[in-house]
User: Fold these one by one.
Assistant:
Number 1:
Amino acid sequence: MLNIYKLEQHIEEQMKASHVPGLALAIVKDQEVMYARGFGVTSVEDGGLAVTPHTLFPIGSVTKPLTGTMIMRLVEQGKLDLDRPVKEYLDGFMLSESGAAERVTLRMLLSHTSGLPTRYSPFGPRNPEALEKHVKEEISQYRLVAPPGKLYSYSNPGINLAGYVAQVVAGMSYTELMQSLVFDPLEMKRTTFDPLVAMTYPVAQSHDPQSDGTMRVEHRFGENAANYPSGYAMSTVLDLANFAIMHMCGGDFHETHILSPEAVIQMHAQQAQSYTVSGSGYGITFMIYAYKGLQLVGHDGDINTFLCKFVMVPDARTAIIIIVNRYEIDPTSLTKQILDQLFDLPAETPQIQEIEPERSIWPQYVGTYLGPFGLTTISVEEDQLMLDFNGQKAALQASRKNLYFSRHPESEETYSVYFLPEETGLVQYVMVEEFRFKRIKRESLSAPDPAIWPAFVGTYRDFDTLTISIKDDSLYGYSAQLGQATVLVALDRTRFITEAGLVEFLIDESGKVSALAMREHSTYYPKVG
């Protein structure tokens, strides 16, 4: 049984300790909102407004299942086919690798198996034509991270492309489609993509820390019309509660039929495995995972300093929606606490069952792999398979064939490691906690060159301000948004490993450092000083 008093007390204590300005929470049971409340304020400036369940927050990637629902409505109308190549909908559409455009389908785009990279641009154009330009001039040029259909690799451009296909086929703008097919029928009355509409309601603001630990408003609102389908909706916990009710009631919202039960089942069914010991995966724009025996369907959102957690337990018709405007509170941990109480779950998570490893295939695993979060090396030492992740070594235990796990020596947190088998020869891809790493030859990396590090020193700015400096013969990066510094460990001449992932300094044709790229160019920070 949920103890509301203790829950609210815990939230308020955590917000105070972490300097989190605002949080909104809604809990759904069957077709009703059983609990909804706002905590804190929308902004620390001028007193702010009290957060309520009606307060608008940017929800980041929780936009994706909204987009997926719109596309599934078009599928049911016969206007789209999940397994038809998107090239057949877009005249002249091409991808950077020959034959890829003929293979990529909507199902691949909506399940992150198209091979398109992650890419994220928090600020960009605001004009309605931006999505089309993004598809034709940017997505078409992106280098694929894997062949289409090969593996799960999270991709914002993939969802943007799917949204553009819907726009072309329906003959309406993406935002008009979302309003007509999702927001209006679900009575999501405040949900919008338009900041000019959002500003007519109470809307939460993004915050950065100051040196004394207090927060200040970030006076730059995240906006990029080219990326609307993948992460730019603004919504409330009550509007998202309506969305959850429809998905947990077989596609019906009160007396309105939105999707068929078969379409909902397909969206909630695993389309791609994400290679973890928990058996998690990805459906049609939904994350699929388990927690202490409960089957969960939902999505996480992360944009600027906002976090959104959208979780459904479809079998129990229960949902939890949490949005915060500062990510010092972990909505995942809070969601688990609520689930534990609602379903009287055991205190301990079931232990992972180990099996005897198939040592004969270990030679196919051994090697060095590079990915958006750094360098992974697999080796065998004294009859033990070992993982070296950015210099931290851990022994691997077998859970299933090709699937292993390790435990962090201090926190005991479990990490999954999956070796994607090839028909013949060496494994080319290793997945570490859902993140892709591709085999490389270690000797292909250039030698670090500290002599050019002074050229990297300076300020880089996008949705965060990063300051690069040299101290005691080491390169450091300071994040204004996080309020902390981290060391940059040289990987080669221009690439470095950090706690936040792989960092690369980009040098233009004139030889000047023009930008800093994060996680294999998923985000860019132009150099401004």
Number 2:
Amino acid sequence: MMYSAHSPDKERGIDLQPYESHIRGVLKRAIKYVEDIGGNAVVDYNSLLNIVRQAALFHDLGKLDGANQPILLGEKIAKRLPVNHVDAGASYFLDSNNLSLAAAVIQAHHIGYGNFLEEESKEDRMFRDSEIMEHTDKTLDDLLAIHNSLINEYKISEMYGINGKKAVFLRIALSCLVDADHTDTSVHYKDHPEPLPYIQLKAEERLAQLDGHITSLNKRDDERSNLRSEMYYSSRDSKTTADIVSCDSPVGSGKTTAIIAHLLNIAIKRQLRRIFVILPFTNIIQQSVKKYREYLVLEGENPNDIVAELHHRADFESNESRHLTSLWRAPIVVTTAVAFFETLASNSPASLRRLHELPCSAIFVDESHAALPVKLLPLALNWINTYSKEWNCYWVLASGSLSRFWDIEEIKLTNCYSVSELINTDLRNQLLKYEKDRIKYQYDLSPKGLQELSEWVIKFPGPRLVIVNTVQNAAIIADYFKMNFGEKKVKHLSTALTPNDRENVIKAIEECLKDKADDDWTLISTSCVEAGVDLSFRTGFRELSSLLSLLQTAGRINREGFYCDSEIWTFKLKESDCFNINSELHESRNILQKYFERGIEILPELSTESIKNELQVSAISKKSKDLVDCENTCEFRFVEDLFKVINTKTVMVIANDEIINKIKNHEKVSWQDIQKHSFRIYGYNIEKFYLREIIAGIYEWKLTYDDFLGYMAGALQVIKAENGVSLIV
């Protein structure tokens, strides 16, 4: 008799997938993912292999139920299976083999883990669906008999103990199962071709090529160039035996290439399989990606395959869209802290699907002190320590701000971290001497309206950089500049633009900056350019935010020290002219304002004190402790809910008619193309901006979109209408 795991798609001419075919496919893939992680340096490797094997074998046991098979065979049509198919596998391990963690993985493979304290309080109903328990218990022996008649060559082995952090272990176990399950299903339905074999890191060859590039660039014979060269070779050849190191090298020291050389060398020594580059928050990453592709891609390779560019999470749970999920399969992955750390925190199977690619990697967290909101740093450092000690990961925490946030007691909590220095004190001090006179910090905290701010800014020498706290404020100011000073006098860069358009804007900015005679213009932006971009302006303006953001912005001003009078001004906006105020920055704004009012000199060394001040605010300190406590007790849903770089839920929106039509017509489209032509917007704006869902989790933009303001070109029209004001003067 035929048993089915997936129903046929008659419209597309795709037959059903036999149960045994799917189980064998998932098992093969899941075991391969575990084996790719490797057993030599992973604390709980045998337990991982055993649990993943058992979960893969029995994850769909309930699909054999007599009520489910008519739908899966295509004899009946239904939106969902009448019997929850995960309960049978969970029941089998709980009742027969006491493999409770395998039961937990099976229960979670569609909906994510529950909170374990709640599950444990359910006693004999732990990891079970209480609504169908009685039915499952009655039919379990029959289901097992069918399963064993189809797949009978695999034996259940003993359970191994978990010696490491249980929450991290369980996420990786679920990652292996879910990726195997989703991949096998999408290949069957022809949504995605069979994945190609992994591209190897080839660290030796890439390091040799990077050395050649650096040699060709280091032709100037002056003290600063010589120090950059020393920085590169000192980092590359470091003899460190630590698992976590820090590198606090100032702007213009060649930190980025030096650290990549170091990571490639570490990858050679430790036989690591990929490198991650993590940039703060939702930063613009195209410049970094361009540089890495130029320096690290070998002859004959496709740059897109070698250096993956992930601007934001592209995770989809539904059957019709989950094949579009972005994965971490490239040997070098460049992404943002939002996409990276929220994956580590996730309880969503679609997000966790990529997590098994992280073990045995080298990770470069650029501007690590500013990579996350302060309240999230304790748990993030907890994960960094766990992945280094238990999953063969090597970390570089880089900074240009002399931050030692890992030494703050409120961040350490109950954990002990050992963080070593990558470069020696003498070299660091020599590099820092160029930083002291590069820029002067100024402030004017009298709140300014749109016209007053604009006329104040243009009095200063250019090119000028203005960074504000919200996408809406940046669009309002950029729109005003364009209408009143001319389109050649202003550029706009924010996440209101798709990555494709942001790349074009960056190219235009780079061309303008090359022309030293063309200096009377202003870039209006958000925090997306605070780090990760090699852009240098004469004068800077930063809406009052955190000290860390101010220091980050300062890194975009007079980067090479060409000017002797460069300034960066901190300012405040009036609550008028449709400006909106980011309430999430309330505490950090107050702390920085007090520094100014007390006459405290703004220096990079102040960043550790600033982080400490934020953490000492009772609400932030409590949230940090709650997060770590929830992680330690495997409260997965709480951790996912609380660990948000951006607190408000966002949705993905596409602004490209060709891609939208392909999706509507069920034509193949890659997640890379979706990423290039999409942006994320707060979910509470779905109705306000008339968003239309075209596939589960993906929306189309119907208002005006242009390559200057992005989606804010249409959104501003709605905002103006709501407020009954005109912003054009």
Number 3:
Amino acid sequence: MTGPIPAHLRGPVAAAFYGGWSAPRVLHSPCPAAVADISGAYGWSYSIQGLQRFDMATAWTSCPAADLVHIVASAPDLRCQILWGDVPLHGRLVLVKVRPHGREILPTKAKRSGAVRLSMAPTDLQGGASWWWLSDLLAGVAMGGPFPEDIVEAWEIVAGDALDDLRCVSLVGGRMVDPRTEDLLSTIRDERARLAVDDTLPNWQREGWASHLRLVSSIIAFGNRARIDRDTLRRAATDDVVFLDGDRLSLKTRHPEQPGPHFNLVIAGAVTSRIRLALAQVVGGLQACGGEWLHLATDAVLAAVTHRDTPEFVECRGGRHRLGRRSGILALPVGDVREILDATGAPWRLKTGFDRPMVGYVSGTYKTALLDPVTGDGTATEAMLGGVYLDPTGTNRRTPDGRFEWAVDAHLAVANAGLTWSGKGEFPDLELPTWADLLAIRPGIASTPEIVARLQRVFPERSIRPFAPYWMAVVDPLRTNSVPVTLDVHFAPDQSLQADWRDQRSGLSVDLSLDKTTDSGAVRGRSIREVIWAWCISQDPTVIPVQHADHVLTIGTCVPANVRSRTDLFEPTGKEGDDLLSLMTDPVAEKDDQLNIYRRADTWAPVLEVARSLGTVELVRRTGMTERTARRIIAGGRPAAETTALVTSVLDGTPPLPPRACGRAGCPSVVSGRQQFCSDRCRKATARAKGRVALRDMGAVRCRKCSAVRFGDPSGECPSCGGRTALVVTATECPDCGVQRVGKIDEPCPFCDAQEVK
């Protein structure tokens, strides 16, 4: 990290940086709703905090701000003050280091299954401390959490004097802006508003200028301020990293990073944290008035809204309100929701649902739809369907807002089916055109040497050039391990099965089929309909469903998952502080080879000396590890990270880690070392449970008699075994004594031998 940032704050600034906050709240439960977003969110956040003074400053300084933070924390009715738009220390960039104890709501990145997602959740670092922006602490208070009590330190970043050689800037259209006396982004916003009503310009010119101004505003406010280009090298190279205390360290990595030309995490972090505070003000305001929100997405909120004069009760599992024996949520009147939005001070745009009654339906993160209950039309997100899967219609048509038309139609089909579903039994069939029964294909480009070499091994008779297009078929993971790919991208989607498909791993030819009952040895592919079905099953690691339904779809409200971890396992560093902090604060985080994880300075040498002075027996007694591990440590071997932390904490006089329980749910046994399970029985039982969960998520069951996988209705006889209850046994009659024998018949009959003995 370069620039005028004080050296001792470079690591904290990186650790405190987060991006956009997106989260679902109510899943698969229709509700009257409306959506609103912040117009020019980045530019508004930049202007309202006066961040232009930092871009014009000759230097930045820092000063202690712990006293200011304590004054803010002790303010009476702090939450009410924030909800009504009175933000303490507004426009001042304050970094705070706190030790959360599980009650404070803070932005945290959870990393599971290869995905990193930001969530505002109760966080507990179990005695550890890390850095957050003051705006994020206030956002947690707005959502109902307490202000962190254990404040370690706080620093305010202050801009110095402005540069002497500043000049006026000319915007598109001729408007001149003097940055010494005018706020650039506020002027751009006013200019965009003027262009919207300027009838003297043709439409094409007015729209082009407005788009240009919007792009300039985003680049100045955020843009590539946090841009990082990651390289992948064949051999390790030296890369510089920054620790939390600002110290630099040069280490070798195969994934060095090149910061962008205007890399500045102070501006980027301050901009995004203020937007999160505005969203938290809306969430807290809705909940304080008894209302509810359905979904958040970076700078937009989908709120439960009714066009009645009084709140409307909507039945929903896990809702905070009750009507008789039913639980549900309240949709607030449109006027009340508008007051909550206006109290934040952000320029909210009231979009679909505020002008007419609409029904909102949320299937997961970024998967929202709004339907008109009268006309039946609506709007929906494509949420990683369009652009990820090949357009099955073959037309590549787009909606007026630039989304893939087929993906929007697919999402609307899911929402329409959800409106008619009672929440019990099977989910209704999706009403989709015939293209939904075609093979699902993921298009790809050979954009790296590794992909080119892989395709060349699969198709040795062809010459694969860089950036060559190819297709990858989506297959049934329960029935095959192959990965079919083809270079025949000229086929129409309805003729894709006739392409030259080959297994990416073995290079053998693959015969694809969409028939669920085929026994011809063909690889079972998945149709677009099956992909859409699996797509609507939410798997969000940042929230916990309040109630699991009998069906595979999770219904009702969700609550943020608590985050607990140990800070002595990972050390956040400068340029990747956000990702490394997610590893540190995620309870199931594992190291990823795509992240540069750098340890703190080597403190193992003095610990090793103490361990050797104690001896094997005493080391085993103090730590509880196995004798074999203790001998390996004393011999000079470096153990795993958890064992290292255990030995260090014990020999430093702190209590050892609590014993780890067996990985099987409900097993009280204790494991040691690198063990995950106490026995093979628990390991196999856990694997079987994962298999059952995977089948359930796919809408399938396994026959108890023949173990065949069955889809759809599980009642009735199994088509594979016919419901047989016993195996057919063939017996052979002995020619000497007439007794029927089962098994090997080339040996002497035991019954005849017994008669001879008698």
